[in-house]
Every structure is written in C-alpha cells, then in structure tokens.
C-alpha cells in the first residue's frame, strides 16, 4: 500500500471565530436541557436512604396494624 505524505493543516482566524460561534450556539442549546434534567438526577450518594423516603418515592403507604391481642386462658 502506498503511503501519503502528511497533509499540512493550517488554522486561520476565520476558523477560530466560526468554531467559537458554533460552540456558543451548542452550549446555549444544551443549557435548558441541563437545567431541566438536573432535577431528574438523584442526589449524590451519602449513605443509606431511610426506608420511609424509599416508600414515599415509590408511592407505598404502609397500613397501621393494630397490636395483636392474646386471649389465652390458663
């Protein structure tokens, strides 16, 4: 296979300005998505999550059970 000689790449001021415009447009487009999705991210892991918080998150409502009564006659 024949090898090509390396192509020289020259950076011009116009290229830098065009890159900056595209980058700013991309960041402006990305910012609203970032703000809305940040509330979707879970908090950083800080240890064990309380069971009540987990139950609230999944919509589980534990029902209170009356204490058992023992009617034994001896």
Automatic annotation (TrEMBL):
Q: Which UniProt keywords apply?
A: Cell cycle, Cell division, Coiled coil, Mitosis, Nucleus, Ubl conjugation pathway
* Principal localisation: nucleus
Q: Which family does it belong to?
A: Belongs to the CDC26 family.
Instruction: State its location(s).
Output: Nucleus
Q: Can you say what this protein is called? A: Anaphase-promoting complex subunit CDC26
- Give one Pfam family, short name only: ANAPC_CDC26
Q: Which GO terms describe its cellular component?
A: anaphase-promoting complex
* Positions of the UniProt region annotated as Disordered: 22-74
Reply yes or no: does the keyword Nucleus apply. yes
Provide ranges: composition bias, Pro residues.
64-74
Q: Where is the composition biased (Basic and acidic residues)?
A: 22-36
Its pathway is:
Protein modification; protein ubiquitination
BP GO terms, sorted: anaphase-promoting complex-dependent catabolic process; cell division; protein K11-linked ubiquitination; regulation of mitotic cell cycle
Task: Say if the entry is tagged with keyword DNA damage.
Answer: no
């Amino acid at each position: 296979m024949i090898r090509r000689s390396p192509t020289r790449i020259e950076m011009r001021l116009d290229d830098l300005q065009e890159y900056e415009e595209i980058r700013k447009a991309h960041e402006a487009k990305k910012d609203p998505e970032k703000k809305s999705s940040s509330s979707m991210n879970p908090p950083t892991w800080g240890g064990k999550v309380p069971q009540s918080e987990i139950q609230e998150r999944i919509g589980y409502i534990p029902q209170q059970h009356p204490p058992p009564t023992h009617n034994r006659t001896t």
